[in-house]
Each structure stands twice: as C-alpha cells, then as structure tokens.
Design brief:
By secondary structure, the chain is α+β, with helices and mostly antiparallel strands. It has four domains: 141 residues, Acyl-CoA dehydrogenase/oxidase, N-terminal domain (Butyryl-Coa Dehydrogenase, subunit A, domain 1, Orthogonal Bundle); 106 residues, Butyryl-CoA Dehydrogenase, subunit A, domain 2, CATH 2.40.110.10; 171 residues, Butyryl-CoA Dehydrogenase, subunit A, domain 3 (Up-down Bundle); 107 residues, Acyl-CoA dehydrogenase, C-terminal domain (Four Helix Bundle (Hemerythrin (Met), subunit A)). The protein contains 19 helices and eleven strands. Strands 3, 4, 5, 6, 7, 8 and 9 form a seven-stranded mixed beta sheet that branches. A two-stranded antiparallel ribbon has the order 1-2. β10 and β11 form a beta hairpin. α11 packs across α17 and α12 packs across α14. The radius of gyration is 24 Å and the shape is globular. The N and C termini lie far apart (53 Å).
C-alpha cells in the first residue's frame, strides 16, 4: 500500500505555511538545543526536513501495519483478563510499530525523550493514523495526557512520568466521565481525600466510558473539596496503574472504533498525585486537555473523511453498470467531487486551527524561560483568542462532515457497502462517534457561538479578505456578499436580545461563519498552490447556496414559533 504521507502532498504544503516559521523558531528556542542533542535541528529548513522524514515513517507504518490490521482489530476487539484490558493482536502490533520507531511522546521536550515537535506535524500524524484505523487513533492519540503533565505538572512529576512514554511505550487515559456526569463534568463525584498519614491523595468512586481506561497512566478528574457541587471543587490527579487499585469492571460493546477499549472503572482507595493546584482541575487543566482532545478529534475526523473518499473513488473507478464505470455518471461524480472539495476545506481549517493553537502554546513555553515582550504578549493573546473559537469549530465541522462523507461513500458502494466485504462498512461505523465524544456537536456550538457574538470570526474573515489577490476578486466578491448576509443576520438575531432565540439559531450562525472561513482559506491556499483554486471555486458555489438557505430560514423565522418546538412532558408520556 502507498505511504500515507507520500500519497497526500497536502501535508508538505501545510508544513510550509508562512506562520510555521514563527512556530518552529519559538518551539526550538532559536535552535539552541542543536548544541546539546545530536538529533535537534540547527535551522528552520533542518526542522522541516526532520518533520517530513518522521512523517514518512508514520505514513509507512500507517499504510503497511495499522491499515492492514484494521479489519482484524475490528473483528477481534479487546477483552478483560485478570482485571487487565488485553488489546486485539493487531492493536498491540500497531502500538509496537510506533513505539519501535520512537513515536510515543512526539511533542514532549527532548530532555524527557520526546522529539519536541510542535502540534502541526503531530496532528498530521494523527490524521494519518485515523485514516488507517480510527479506533487505534484514540489509543495512540492519548499521549496528549503527557502534554498536560508537561504543561501543568511539577518538575518532579515531569521527570518521573514523561520519560516513560518514549522509553517504555507508556499508554495513557483521560479519566473524566461518570455515570451521572457526561457532558456536565462539573457534576463529577469521584472522591479525592488527602491521607495525612500516607501523605497521599486517595481516590474512590466510579468512572464510565473511559477510552483506554486501563492505561499505564491516567489523568483523573475528582472532587477534592468537601461540601462542593460545582467545578470549583474539582482537581486533577495522576494515577499509576502499577498501584493495582482500580477494577476494570466492564468493557462497552460498541457500534464502532471497536479496537479502542471503552472501560467502566472502579477506584478503590487508589493512591494518586495532585497535578498543579487544588480546585483547578476542571476550570483550567481539563479545559486545556479537552481542547487538545477536540483538535485530535478534528484530525481523526479528517482522517476518516479521507479514508471514506478514497474508498468511494476506488470503488467508483472499478464498478461498472450499464456498460460504463459508475464514476462516469453525474449522480456519482458530483458526490465524489463534493467529497473531495469538502476534504480540502476541512484540512485547511484543521491546520489553520492547529497553527493558532501552536503559536499560543509555544509562547506559553517561552514564558517558562523568559518574560515576553509586550508585542509577544499581545500576539499570544490574539492567537489564544482565535484558538478558543476555532477549536470547537473544527471539531464540530469536521466530525459532522466525516459522517456525511462516510454516508455518501457507502451510498456509492451500494449494497456491497452494507456488507463487511469492503472497509467502508467499518469506516461508516467508526465515523459516528466523532460528533459525540470529547463534547457533542451541540456543546461545540455553545463554545463556537462566542466567535460569532464577540465578532472574532468576522474579524478573522476580514483578515482573510485582505489577503486575497486581485486574480481572485471574482471569488472574493461572492464571499463578501456572503459575509454581508452573515453580518446582517447576526445583527438581527442579536437585536432581539433573547438568549433562547440565539441558542436556537446558533448552529446555523456558526456554520455560516465556518463556510466563509473555509472558502477564504481555500483561495489563500490556492495562491500558494494553484490546484486549490479549483476546490475554492466549487466549494464557494456549494456554500453560497448552503448559507443562503440558513439566512432565509433565520430571516423568515417567527420567534413565536419557538414555543411550538418545545415537547412537553405530557406529550412524551402520551406516546
């Protein structure tokens, strides 16, 4: 099978974005580590070359190991044996391949055994892994937990835990959800008490729906403050599986991502270490961890979308009906082309978001070494503001799109796609979870609508507008008209000053902004690589009608009809 990095030239394109130069120089601290570590880059070109070489290795493993094992992993799945989760054989083989290649802890500092990569190449690797096997992407991607320890843990904790990822292939888990605290994490009840005699925190309670729950290291959200019921009573802890104080009570039987074990865990006087400060568990540390996880699901969704598109294209080129291959029928090639341009748009949004997160994060790392200049502080604040609304935007947009693309791909396969003879049956099932976990689409809208109401999306749209060259004025004009409609309808919704009315239309408003942003990103990408202009033209044609439909719906909506949407309890009981 082709190398997943080499068969996707878009990766190299996005690695060479102008903003990457700033990210790399900040991340590498002007390349000072080249004097200490033999494999540290000595300039920008060397760094990009290193990223590409490592991503080629990832691409090879994805193509020839992970993708090859995906069907057997889906069939076999994990199981519990002696209170331990045993991966499917293919999953263990996948993880070993990445571990042997030194790809566990890619973004960790070199002094802890990492590669000190910025997020951009790491997210590209995550996209490739997800394209190969979306379920395995969860297990490998939870090395994000190491980043959280690096960012918020003590130096003693960093030295104790972080080297284990690259050295030992340590796995990780993000242990947040409980039976009565899913999206509403401030309701977490797992109890953390401090044992003065043992000078240790002790955890007791139940967690549910925990991805890779029996991992070597777990970041656990627990209630450390007595007599509290909200987020201010929660802290974050590190639990080490070596302590053998957690029972893996149950493995969920799932629709998709079957290779990824989803556990119910019972903590029984489990010793744990506090991360950072008490009471900051949810309001600071989990929020940072969830933002990384949401970016990860964005990458996973794009990887699934890419896999779905490739399967559809391959099948359409081979399947003949009525004397010709089905790719020659307008009903089919329209679906395929729309999938391709949507994929290009999603990838542009994914890596634009990643760059925003990267800049804000690397400035945070620089702050540990020196005080930021005034201009740097303002720049960090600017990119953090963008990252905070673009992250839920990419998670929402990519997860919903990958579900649609998996649906269309299966449709192109026809009846055979419904059988287990083709990978699309698995891809279709795997796609469904992306718009649910790490915050449902509905929760992403709550976060992303701030980009609408604060004007952050509109402000960034204007920035993109200013970057469009004269050659593309015809496309810019269409997007300007769409932006005018967007401004008008946002103003109309806000003028009513009704929070429920705003919430009702929030998804439509966020999707309108997201479409305009992706349209501009494709034009700007096309100015560096001409092939994206075709995608820009077709995508803008598509979203013009989509946005007009949303505009007309909101514009003609009678606020009094809002009450008609509410289903009263008596109506439900009657049914």
């Amino acid at each position: 099978m082709d190398n997943f990095f080499q068969d996707t030239p878009d990766f190299k394109f996005h690695l060479n974005h102008p903003l990457v130069q700033k990210i790399v120089k900040l991340k590498e601290n002007d390349f000072k580590e080249s004097e200490t570590f033999d494999f540290a880059p000595f300039n920008l070109e060397d760094a990009i070359d290193t990223y590409e070489k490592i991503l080629e290795i990832v691409g090879d493993i994805c193509a020839n190991t992970i993708a090859e094992n995906a069907e057997s992993v889906d069939s076999e799945g994990p199981h519990i044996e002696n209170n331990a989760v045993i991966y499917a054989k293919g999953t263990s083989s996948d993880y070993k391949a990445l571990y042997d290649a030194g790809l566990i802890g890619m973004s960790l500092p070199r002094k802890y055994g990492g590669l000190n990569f910025p997020l951009l190449p790491y997210v590209m690797a995550a996209e490739m892994v997800a394209r190969a096997d979306a379920g395995f992407a969860n297990i490998w991607g939870l090395q994000d937990c190491a980043e959280t320890i690096n960012e918020f843990g003590s130096e003693e904790q960093r030295e104790k835990y972080l080297p284990r990822f690259n050295r030992d292939g340590t796995t990780a888990a993000m242990v947040l959800t409980e039976p009565d605290a899913g999206s509403d994490l401030q309701s977490v009840q797992l109890k953390a008490t401090f044992d003065k005699k043992e000078n240790s925190w002790i955890l007791n309670g139940v967690k549910r729906f925990i991805t890779n729950g029996d991992a070597d290291l777990a970041l656990v959200l627990a209630r450390s403050e007595e007599n509290t019921t909200d987020a201010r009573g929660l802290s974050m802890f590190i639990y080490d599986r070596k302590n053998h104080a957690v029972e893996v009570r149950h493995l969920e039987k799932k629709l998709g991502i079957k290779g990824s074990p989803t556990c119910e865990l019972v903590f029984k006087d489990a010793p744990a270490e506090l991360v950072g400060k008490e009471r900051f568990g949810l309001i600071k540390y989990v929020m940072a961890l969830m933002n990384s996880a949401r970016l990860g699901v964005g990458a996973q969704s794009v990887g699934i979308a890419d896999a779905a598109y490739r399967e559809a294209l391959k099948y359409a080129e081979e399947r003949a009906q009525f004397g010709k291959t089905i790719i020659n029928f307008p009903a089919v090639y329209e679906m395929l082309t729309n999938m391709k341009i949507r994929l290009d748009a999603l990838r542009s949004l994914l890596y634009e978001t990643t760059r925003f997160v990267d800049v804000s994060k690397v400035y945070g790392e620089v702050m540990k070494e020196r005080k930021l200049e005034k201009e740097e502080r303002m720049e960090m604040k600017h990119y953090m503001k963008l990252a905070n609304v673009f992250t839920p935007l990419i998670k929402m947009t990519a997860s919903e799109a990958c579900n649609k693309m998996a649906y269309d791909s299966l449709q192109i396969h026809g009846g055979t796609g419904f059988m287990k003879d083709f990978p699309i049956e698995r891809i279709y099932r795997d796609a469904r979870i992306t718009s649910i976990y790490e915050g449902t689409t509905q929760l992403q809208i709550i976060a992303a609508i701030k980009g609408v109401t604060t004007g952050v999306f509109l402000e960034q749209i204007k920035v993109y507008e200013s970057e469009v060259l004269e050659d593309n004025n015809d496309l810019k004009k269409v997007l300007q008209e769409m932006t005018s409609d967007y401004e008008e309808i946002v103003g109309k919704v806000e003028a009513i000053e009704n929070t429920e009315y705003l919430d009702f239309h929030a998804r439509r408003l966020v999707e309108m902004a997201g479409n305009i942003i992706m349209g501009y990103l494709l034009i700007i990408d096309g100015q560096r690589e001409s092939k994206f202009i075709k995608s820009a033209k077709l995508f803008i044609d598509l979203i013009r009608s989509e946005n007009k439909e949303r505009f007309n719906y909101i514009n003609n909506f009678n606020i009094e009809n809002l009450e008609l949407y509410k289903i009263e309890e008596t109506e439900v009981l009657k049914k």
